[in-house]
Design goal:
Blueprint: H1 19-48, H2 55-64, H3 67-74, H4 76-98, H5 106-128, H6 143-164, H7 175-206, H8 216-242
Helix pairs in contact: 1-2, 1-4, 1-6, 1-8, 4-8, 5-6, 7-8
């Protein structure tokens, strides 16, 4: 008799067999959710911000008018591509390394993990972009710290919740499942290898049409990131779908 599907089919510190495919899908959803909230926050800060208003208004104005925002606006294609690719990389890191060792429901595991990229954003990304350590050079008080925290917690909650959804339908640890997982990994690798140069070439070709948003190198690199992310997702799912039934897997149920 087959063992019932349950969370007990893997050890507590081992990733699930389908971690790559589930991680890619969860990463897309989490990055999309985080981007939507970021756009809403940017619109809100633009609406209420004032250089001569009260403290909150001045802080909100500074969130929109600072070196980080200006550099992002000048390299919008690159920023979109980097954000998408980084969202997927973090999702795969969560699925492969952190999710198995964290505790609690999926959304809570994801929120715990999100504290890592939040700290990296404050101590590495913001200083590199001219915002200073913890965003203190932006002139927006604690808003960069709190805003970054909220954005990353939303990313982590969506990531963890989405990744946990298929957990109730895991397959048994069989040769068939391992073959499917290996096929997904091969497909993802091929997708990245193809998507990266194709995206770069398309970006270089279409750059003159978006010169008002970004220069040719930034556009090419940005679309290369987007191409790599799309290739990773498509390759992963294509690899799984091309892995037909094996000798150990029945053709019909």
């Amino acid at each position: 008799m087959n063992q019932p599907h349950s969370l007990e089919l893997r050890s507590s510190d081992a990733p699930r067999e389908e971690w790559l495919r589930a991680g890619v899908l969860s990463g897309f959803l989490a990055t999309f959710a985080m981007s939507i909230v970021l756009l809403i926050a940017y619109w809100l800060a633009s609406s209420i911000g004032s250089a001569s208003g009260n403290v909150l208004q001045r802080w909100s104005w500074a969130l929109v008018h600072n070196p980080v925002a200006e550099q992002t606006a000048n390299r919008v294609v690159l920023a979109i591509g980097a954000n998408l690719l980084m969202g997927l990389v973090l999702a795969l890191l969560y699925a492969r390394v952190f999710e198995p060792i964290l505790h609690g429901p999926g959304w809570w595991r994801g929120m715990q993990f999100s504290l890592l990229p939040w700290l990296l954003s404050l101590i590495i990304f913001l200083p590199l972009m001219g915002g200073g350590l913890f965003g203190m050079d932006i002139g927006a008080g604690i808003l960069p710290i709190v805003g970054n925290l909220v954005l990353h917690l939303i990313y982590g909650a969506v990531l963890g919740a989405a990744y946990a959804v298929p957990a109730h339908d895991w397959l048994d640890d069989t040769d068939v499942d391992r073959a499917h997982a290996a096929a997904a990994e091969r497909g993802a690798a091929v997708g990245v290898v193809i998507g990266l140069p194709v995206g770069f070439l398309l970006g270089w070709w279409f750059a003159p049409a978006v010169m008002g948003l970004a220069g040719q190198p930034e556009t090419a690199i940005g679309l290369a990131f987007i191409g790599a992310a799309i290739g990773l997702a498509v390759g992963s799912f294509a690899g799984m779908s091309r892995q037909g039934p094996t000798a150990a897997e029945p053709l019909a149920r």
